[in-house]
Amino acid sequence: MSDADRRFMALALGLAARGLGNVWPNPAVGCVIVNEGRIVGRGWTQPGGRPHAERRALDMAGAAARGATAYVTLEPCSHHGKTPPCSEGLIAAGVARVVSAQEDPDPRVSGRGHAMLRAAGLAVDVGLMEAEARALQAGFLSRITRGRPWLALKLATSFDGRIALANSESQWITSAPARARVHALRARFDAVLVGGGTARADDPLLTVRSFTPLRQPVRVVASAGLDLPRDRLAGSVSEAPLWLVHGPDAGAEARAFWAGIGAELIEVPLAGQGLNVAALSVALGARGLTRVFCEGGGQFAAALMRAGLVDELIGFTAGVALGADARPALGPLGLAHLPDAPRFTLASVETLGGNVLHRWRR
């Protein structure tokens, strides 16, 4: 494929990224329609998952879609859901060629969209910038193929990996620009997840507040006994969805209170002294979440790490040292041998307000 093909697909990927955090349970897809070297239509999946990217681009292109090439970041859908299949829309519009970054593993599609296009006489090329498309769609692909969302663990720490002093004082270890970036990251994920310990210590809102997002992320709190503060978290249910994951022994009064104010209760089994985090992850995937942004705390993060559920580490590191008596970012992992330690590959690094932001992938 040509340099022009790659350039238009890169544009489609950029458009697709605009949907991250806004479109679950659907994938965030981008589409660019080009006729004789001129862009005549472009679109990305809209908040809530509809309209799809192809439909938006076709509506913009109108009659200019006839004989054009459509660049899409994921195989066009082929099944009838709440909207007609995008493959049918491309065919009806007279598009001559479709360049698709990757096949959709969703069993309802899984090659059928490409086959429908070819059967109608369209030229179909698959695989352009597939690695980039897969990285962008990591959450959707994880939910479809593994039954659970992609999970990123954020750790904001001192240089020596501490998140608070021994007396729990933690405001603020990182800089204001770093904290603003955290809000921007929250907006690109479907949900923000914390453990019950963090909720009890901070009673956090977990909303995006540095700006007004298109869609507030779901707030998920994991607390086996539902013994949670009933102030800010309870008083903000109207601002953003609140899901509480609890164990089978959570009290009836606590269940009634949280359900009564509009929180969604999700029961999962226990594992040892806490919740079964693997079951928690599957439960979130079953409810459509594709990308989850975990903000701790240390014991809960360690449980996720021990279970192999952390796909990405996002670290904000400040140039301050707190010492061994301060609280560590991670609880015990129970490692006996260094080769058993979870390892991640550095994906990116940047300086931000005097801090270092580094991202790692499993």
Automatic annotation (TrEMBL):
Domain CMP/dCMP-type deaminase, first and last residues per copy: 3-125
SUPFAM superfamilies in the record: Cytidine deaminase-like, Dihydrofolate reductase-like
Pfam families per record: dCMP_cyt_deam_1, RibD_C
Cofactor binding remark: Binds 1 zinc ion.
Binding site for NADP(+): A156, W172, T198, D202, G297, G298, Q299, F300, A301, A302, A303
Role according to the record: Converts 2,5-diamino-6-(ribosylamino)-4(3h)-pyrimidinone 5'-phosphate into 5-amino-6-(ribosylamino)-2,4(1h,3h)-pyrimidinedione 5'-phosphate.
Name recorded for this polypeptide: Riboflavin biosynthesis protein RibD
Organism: Paenirhodobacter ferrireducens
